[in-house]
Write a structure and sequence with these properties.
Layout lengths: L1 E2 L2 E2 L3 E4 L2 E3 L3 E3 L8 H9 L6 E7 L7 H8 L8 E6 L3 H13 L5 E5 L4 H4 L11 H14 L4 E5 L9 H10 L4 E5 L14 H9 L4 E4 L5 H11 L3 E4 L2 H4 L3 H10 L8 H17 L4 H14 L8 H9 L3 H12 L14
Parallel strand pairs: 5-12, 6-7, 7-8, 8-9, 9-10, 10-11, 11-12
Antiparallel strand pairs: 1-2, 3-4
Helix pairs in contact: 3-5, 5-6, 11-14, 12-13, 13-14
The structure holds flavin mononucleotide.
Amino acid sequence: MDIEGVEVRPLDLGRGVRFDPPFVLAPMEGVTHRVFRDLLLDAGGPGAAWTEFLRVSQVPLRAAAIRRELGPPRADVPVGVQLMGTDPDVVAETAKNAVAAGAPMIDLNFGCPAPVVFNKCAGSAMLDHPDRLHALVAAVARAVEVPVTAKVRLGTRDASRFEDVVRAVDEAGAAALTVHARTRADQYAHPARWEHLARARAWTRLPLIGNGDVLGWDDAVRMMRECGVDGVMVGRGALRDPWVLARMRARARGAPAPEVGAAQVLAFHARYRDDMLRGGATELGLVGQLKQLYRRLEVGLPLDAAARTALLRAPNLAALEALVEGLAGAPLSRPSPCSSGT
Ligand SMILES: Cc1cc2nc3c(=O)[nH]c(=O)nc-3n(C[C@H](O)[C@H](O)[C@H](O)COP(=O)(O)O)c2cc1C
């Protein structure tokens, strides 16, 4: 569909994997775990999603452990496994296990800025070593039949090796490239440096997914138009507004936007709580996750600074939920005491 001078069409990775629409949810460690992902995917939002990064060290991760992160295969939307490691053989073996666990695609993380990762020469540290990055992508692409993609930053301190990185990914047989338009030194600073996305476009014919500071439809369309990317990845924008990708999907289809108000936030909260508890979360863990949600949420509830602070200070689940109900002016649904919990 041609909208505002931009062709919004499915992004094809080959081997039967398509992102439709080409607006995808960024992997975010500690946030986009299975429960959160499924909530967004069930709302009809992202055209694709991934697990948070799974760290691969000395030995391959087993299929059972990967399956726990990935969940059951979804027929509607491809949900891939993201791996982060340095040893091509061990990561390739893990990728095989990920495919055995049901992953329809594998993404390789070359962006994580955390010192603990960087000091082991993984994540964004690989951006200083395009040859190693190439060897890793090539080994994984050779090992599995599913599309293998790479997610990179612009560089560690600056973008001086960015072209080498893009070409390394391209020549290693990747099926697509995601560029988070910041260096490691930028961390998460605004604005993201979209001008480098247009540079990458000139160096590769791979499907290119742009990432950084996309908060909604207008940003996505502007990024596609100005930078020539084929798809757009949304990170913190989906934490600020968990329905943003559903709205973008609707807009791409010319369908009415989903409503977002207090009722939707209450339903989201209730399912989040119930699914987390069913998955074995402790009350403490659940309260931490809900606080993380309310720390960033900017839609549906009147969350001024005072309300947010009160929520973040809630001592337990009952207190947190009472505050949410007060803000929403309506009660949260509670699991029936007779429900089996299955
Ligand atoms: C809390 C958090 C966790 C993240 N974890 C991952 C991760 O596991 N894998 C990854 O490739 N990127 C990770 N990222 C980076 C995001 O995927 C994304 O590239 C970044 O947030 C920029 O996009 P944005 O400006 O839309 O937020 C993380 C970002 C945040 C804020």
